[in-house]
């Protein structure tokens, strides 16, 4: 009798396990690699579509190049910090609005400085003398004219060239646009800010493609409380595995197998690769079989730049009540840019933001030396500046989890490389700011590619299962739009 009951229990247990395995075998599954904005957006969409989703992240935190640090006792974004395009067309606007996250508007739609308006500056020369605002406005107009003239150069030349070379051609043709003395230094500062937008030096930026990205209307809004609340909201309830660095992705006709650094493996019907372009370039993830040649070429040819942040926290405010401070110099390399967080957040913090070669050179320093370097730039214009009480230093270029800040169009490379990187390979899908043709280098671009990859993946997997319903609305179609609250500059 006892033996019979034991046999029945074993049979019931075996049937139970068999049912679970059968259910798992027929339940759509996806592995998402990378818990930045794109990866989390993709995982969120698939999870909400009742897929089994595993999210693998190499860091000990989520967010990727979105990194809100609380070391100062309040949020400071060391990575992305702006919503570029505060409007209903921005796919992140509804979520930011629903969370009640305020934005501080730093520019309108047509600022020559991209993310700042001319009215919000204070520029100084190396001797600490403030540059007259009227001169800065005049050079701003001249800079726009120079950019207009470079478009003529672009139309006349079939071969691409660095935008800096186009500037030289413009100056040869239009001696009236050449500037000397202080005016030349201010022009170099404008060029420095342009290089900051692309995270690359002007001699590396493509003349053909530099303005091909789409700028959403509504200006630019600084995330006052940081970007991490958006990340945390999207990540809620997801199956996330931190400290899981992916080393190998094997794709077969019936699924994928993903191996992490410690040798463990995960299997699923499909995978979404949402790691930074710098990581893909490093070949630290092995693909088996190899990716198609056109995909490998896209990875190799997309430009990846560096822009870092050195946040200096002071015990009191001693600087002008403007949104940013600038140091003008003979070259763009020698210019400096400080974002004034006190204006937006009431915290006494200045953020030094080097880009391109300067950012690479500073990354060779220790954190203390980098903070001292930034502070010395500040002392040039404000000799009475008090020492910072705390500092934070980002290193996106040498961080093995990013190996760069964001993408830009390199000289001689077509803009459609972003689309080539996005196109799926069998049951392998790709997402991230580097796969966004219209919005590369932006958080909303990364978010959009994540949701797009999730939808393409969903349809592909359900088609394989024979469960695709063409009358089912695509993920996110029923979202209502609203615009986030903006804090007045006044």
UniProtKB/TrEMBL annotation:
Signal peptide: none
Domain spans labelled Amine oxidase: 37-457
Binding site for substrate: 352
Cofactor(s) in the UniProt record: FAD
GO molecular function per UniProt: spermine oxidase activity
Keywords: Oxidoreductase
Pfam families: Amino_oxidase
Pathway(s) per entry: Amine and polyamine degradation; spermine degradation
Binding-site list for FAD: 246
PANTHER family linked to this entry: FLAVIN MONOAMINE OXIDASE, LYSINE-SPECIFIC HISTONE DEMETHYLASE 1A
Protein name as catalogued: Amine oxidase domain-containing protein
């Amino acid at each position: 009798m006892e033996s019979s009951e034991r046999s029945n229990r074993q049979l019931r247990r075996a049937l139970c396990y068999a049912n679970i395995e059968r259910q798992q075998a027929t339940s759509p599954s996806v592995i998402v690699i990378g818990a930045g904005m794109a990866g989390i957006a993709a995982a969120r969409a698939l999870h909400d579509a009742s897929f089994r989703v595993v999210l693998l992240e190499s860091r000990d935190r989520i967010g990727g190049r979105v990194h809100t640090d609380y070391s100062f006792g309040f949020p400071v974004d060391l990575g992305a910090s702006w919503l570029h395009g505060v409007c209903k067309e921005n796919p992140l606007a509804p979520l930011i609005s629903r969370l009640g996250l305020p934005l501080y508007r730093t520019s309108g739609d047509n600022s020559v400085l991209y993310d700042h308006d001319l009215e919000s500056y204070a520029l100084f020369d190396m001797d600490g003398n403030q540059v007259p605002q009227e001169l800065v406005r005049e050079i701003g107009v001249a800079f726009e004219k120079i950019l207009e003239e470079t478009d003529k150069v672009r139309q006349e030349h079939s071969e691409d060239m660095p935008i800096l070379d186009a500037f030289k051609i413009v100056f040869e043709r239009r001696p009236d646009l050449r500037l000397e003395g202080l005016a030349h230094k201010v022009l170099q500062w404008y060029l420095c800010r342009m290089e900051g937008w692309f995270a690359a030096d002007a001699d590396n930026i493509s003349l053909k493609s530099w303005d091909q990205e789409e700028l959403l209307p509504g200006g630019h809004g600084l995330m006052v409380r940081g970007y991490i609340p958006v990340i945390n909201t999207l990540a809620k309830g997801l199956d996330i595995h931190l400290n899981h660095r992916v080393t190998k992705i094997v794709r077969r006709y019936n699924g994928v197998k993903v191996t992490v650094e410690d040798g463990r493996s995960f299997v699923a019907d499909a995978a979404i690769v949402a790691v930074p372009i710098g990581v893909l370039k490093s070949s630290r993830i092995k693909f088996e079989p190899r990716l198609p040649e056109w995909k490998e070429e896209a990875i190799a040819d997309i430009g990846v730049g560096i822009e870092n942040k050195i946040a200096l926290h002071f015990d009191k405010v001693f600087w002008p009540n403007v949104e940013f401070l600038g140091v003008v110099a003979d070259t763009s390399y020698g210019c400096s840019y400080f974002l004034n967080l006190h204006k937006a957040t009431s915290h006494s913090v200045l953020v030094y933001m080097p880009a391109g070669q300067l950012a690479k050179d500073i990354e060779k320093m220790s954190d203390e030396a980098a903070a001292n370097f930034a502070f010395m730039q500040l002392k040039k214009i404000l000799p009475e500046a008090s020492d910072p009480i705390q500092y934070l230093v980002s290193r996106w270029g040498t961080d093995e989890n990013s190996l760069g800040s964001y993408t830009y169009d390199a000289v001689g490379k077509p803009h459609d490389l972003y689309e080539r990187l996005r196109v799926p390979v069998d049951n392998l899908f790709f997402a991230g700011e580097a796969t966004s043709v219209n919005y590369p280098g932006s958080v909303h671009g990364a978010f959009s590619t994540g949701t797009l990859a999730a939808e393409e993946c969903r349809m592909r997997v359900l088609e394989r299962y024979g469960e695709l319903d063409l009358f089912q609305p695509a993920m996110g179609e029923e979202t209502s739009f609203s615009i986030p609250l903006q804090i007045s500059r006044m």
